[in-house]
Structure formats: structure tokens, C-alpha cells
Amino acid sequence: MQVALLTVGDELLAGDTVNTNATWLADRLSERGVSVQRVLVVPDDREDIAENVRTYSEAYDAVVVTGGLGGTPDDVTMAAVADAFDRELAVDDLAFAEVEETLAAIAESYPDLDIDAETEATIPAGSRPLLNRGGLSPGCVVENVYVLPGIPDEMKTMFEAVEEEFEGDAVSEFLYTERPEGNLVDVLTEAGKEFDVSVGCYPDRSAGHNRLKVTGDDPEEVEAAIEWLIDETGASEEPLD
């Protein structure tokens, strides 16, 4: 399964907010054997979001979009996703009931809160609502596009409700070596030719070693590449002290 991540927000592009959502999602999806093919940050621009959602939806098995949900003027993600699939926006009954229930629960704590429940519960017509157990604004699923909140805690809770819909065959294993990256070029190139795997090298100067990542769809092929690399480089399967 190949997936693209689309994170929305001017604050991400300005560097005001660290894009932890993309990192967390990529890690979680990789754990499930899913291959994350693209990670893109786009501004709070309806046309830009719609164009990229449409392109990625056609190119990959699924797209995960985060950010830009709610009722403020810069929250245009739902409208953009609707545009991408030529759908109207509509109030979803299930989402509306959930939003009203949440607002009622917090009314005493926030007596001056002025939120339009219908606006919050508006999603692309015919989409599947994803209830926000950690916040207010619902997400949704439109065809192969999953729309999640930008607030990290809310995003994680909502993704965990649908994560079983993401499954893949990719397997990754790690090796650790103190050999300089420049001295690994030839052997890593050879590994990629000898085995049906991809091999990456990631220097970690603070730890004093390089981390090698071997990824493939066949566990036996990955294991064979790991054993070959250990023989060729003396690398360890355990992090070096």
C-alpha cells in the first residue's frame, strides 16, 4: 500500500509550528508495512489543497490530509477536498449530533463560547464522517482520502480509529556501524543490486554511529540483505554504545 501525506497550514510553511503530524503518521504507517511515498506541506489555500488532493488521490492508494478543519476563515480544507471530488458541502447528521453533544458538555466551562454546530459538522456530501473524540471538528473519508484535524492529539486519536484500514507489505530492518558514510557507498550500492531491497544510510553524529535501513516487500530478501551487510561491513543489529 502506497500513501501520500498532505499537511495543511500557513503556520507550517512559516516555521511557526513544527510538522510533528507528518513525522508521527509516517512512523505509524511504516510500522503497518505501508510505504509513504510523499509528504507535502501546502498553505491554507483552497485551490492549492484541492489540486494536490486530486493528484495524490489518483496516484496513490490513499491520502491522509491533516489541518485546516473548523470554522475560522483559514479553515478551508473540507471545502477544498469537496472541490477535489466535485462534491457539495453538507451538514452530516452524525457529526452534527456529536458536535452538539460536545458543545453541551463544555458549555458550563466555556459559557461565552460561540460556535455554529452546523458549520463544524459540514463535510463533503456523501463522505464518511470521522468523529472527533478528542476535540470538536469532525474529519471524514472521501473515496481514498482521509481528512484529519491538525491538532496533534486530535489527529492521533482520529487516526487510531481508522488505522486498521492501512495495511502494507513493506518490511524494514536496521543495522548500526561506526564506519564512515563515505566508506559505505560501494557496499550499499552493491547491496541494492544483489537484493530486491532499498538501503539507506543515516548518520547519527550524537550517537557516534551510522544507521543503515534495509526495506523491501519480501521478509526473506530483507533478511538475506541484512546478513550480507553484516558480513561485508561488520555492522551490528543492536545500537552501538
Secondary structure category = alpha/beta
Strand line-up of the largest beta sheet: 2-1-3-8-7-6
Name of the CATH superfamily of the largest domain: MoaB/Mog-like domain
The end-to-end distance, rounded to whole angstroms, is 35 Å
Sheet of most strands: 6 strands, mixed
Number of domains: 2
Mean pLDDT across the residues is: 91
Number of E-type strands: 11
- Uncertain runs with pLDDT below 50, 5 residues or more? none
Number of H/I helices: 9
Q: How would you sum up the global shape?
A: elongated
Helix content: 25-40%
Determine the strand fraction and express it as a percent band. Answer: 15-25%
Here the CATH topology of the largest domain equals: Molybdenum Cofactor Biosythetic Enzyme, Chain A
CATH C-level of the largest domain: Alpha Beta
Characterise this structure.
The structure is a single chain. The chain has 241 residues and is α/β, with parallel strands linked by helices. Helices cover 38% and strands 24% of the residues. It is built from nine helices and eleven strands. It has helices at residues 10-13, 20-31, 46-59, 77-84, 93-106, 117-120, 152-162, 185-194, 219-233, and strands at 2-8, 35-42, 62-66, 89-91, 122-124, 128-130, 139-142, 145-148, 171-177, 198-204, 209-216. It has a six-stranded mixed β-sheet, with helices on both faces. It has a three-stranded antiparallel β-sheet with strand order 9-11-10, covered by helices on one side. Strands 4-5 form a two-stranded antiparallel sheet. Helix 3 (46-59) crosses helix 4.
Helix and strand layout, with pairings?
Elements: E1 2-8, H1 10-13, H2 20-31, E2 35-42, H3 46-59, E3 62-66, H4 77-84, E4 89-91, H5 93-106, H6 117-120, E5 122-124, E6 128-130, E7 139-142, E8 145-148, H7 152-162, E9 171-177, H8 185-194, E10 198-204, E11 209-216, H9 219-233
Parallel strand pairs: 1-2, 1-3, 3-8
Antiparallel strand pairs: 4-5, 6-7, 7-8, 9-11, 10-11
